[in-house]
Amino acid sequence: MSNSIIYWFRQDLRLEDNPALLHAAQSGKSVIPIFIFDPDERSIGMAASWWRKQSLSKLDASLKKIGASLSFYEGRPLEVLENLTRFYSADEIVWNRQYDGYCISRDKEIKQIFSDKGIQCSSFNASLLFEPWLIKNKSGSFFKVFTPFWRHCLSEYAPESPFPRPTEVRGHPDKDPFQIQLPKALLSDDADLTSDEWTPGEAGAYQQFEKFIEEGLAIYAEFRDFPDRPATSRLSPYLRWGEIGPRQIWSKIQFVKSHESFSEKTISKFLAEIGWREFSYNLIFHVPEMVTQNLQPSFNDFPWEENEKALQQWKDGNTGYPLVDAGMRELNRTGYMHNRVRMITASFLIKHLMIDWRAGEKYFWDRLLDACPANNITGWQWVAGSGADAAPFFRIFNPIIQGEKFDPKGAYTKRFIPELAHFEQKYLFSPWKAKSDSVKLDFQEGEYPDPIVEHEYARNRALDAFQQIRR
User: Where along this sequence does the record place binding of FAD (predicted)?
Assistant: First the structure.
């Protein structure tokens, strides 16, 4: 009789609140913890690769402290697991669920094949507060608008408490010959990802969460849209890789709410962001094709423009609109971008340049530390107006006004655009006006570009295009 169980880590790189790991640890069997680099899963970019490598390394160190170690494999998971079950004579495989279409299909196939062989496969929820198939509207379908979705969740369900951390995981004494070394992460020469801003791993997630509670939560509702203020949680990369889970966040916030004097408004605003993540996963679970297709079919006829030069200028942060460019340069340099600025840069690509949202989504996926398979898609379709509960297409951000409103002192913009570091504040978000006013320019480094498109012209062009698909 076998006494081995395989635990497959995926996007749950933590020991705390990990139901599949806890099940394996309590099974009484030798546990083989593994991570598989699946070539058929959507490839991640350099920033996410860097993060994942750091997190996996720290996870392995944590497992070794309680009796096991993490083994790495590369290949199609079914083949890897078949080899491992033979080598270890394992009779059980466990994992925590993923919710995108590819992973669901892959996992169903694996469960069926191993079930036919008499090997039990069990999956658990470590990623969401609420399973997508549980949340239904009055007609028995899934919600397509966030507010009623979140209201329903809060009124009908109570999130589970976090699962305890296993005190011991009894590793297997044998090591199979198939495992590989942890691959090197891809990094560009100028990537500033190893700075003190980020500490990947489970411990880093807790530290960041505590820091947010101490320094950011009280001002979250008022200042979360200001990129120069420390008012956001910056937990998104940790959530992306499962170094902290939503149940842990929910539980901690409820404790804080009952013991400290934070306003109901700021607590609700913050938890609504966790709710938006739930909503995003709910959508891709029910409509898996939305990862590549417009959720609203009317946008299939939208007259997108092919403009590789403009797309590259947007990617490089050389559009001539300082807040847009600051956001893109932050992304390229650090693998991160403030959420308000994400909306502004996305709106500019889609509505000022008339470039398909899928080009922007791909670039963000390749560059973001927190490139989430649900949030990234849902966010881009929200800005485009083609998704569920989307902002209407005719809501077109004015990048000048957005800069003046949300970066009023210019601290964020000047940080990422050194050419404008000593530029007169009056003209910071429309520097071309200084030229027309014959104001002496005070550039530090190089020449900042003129706008690649005029705002009013771009706005009217976008609105005309939108009218075409409404006819």
Answer: 220, 232-236, 270
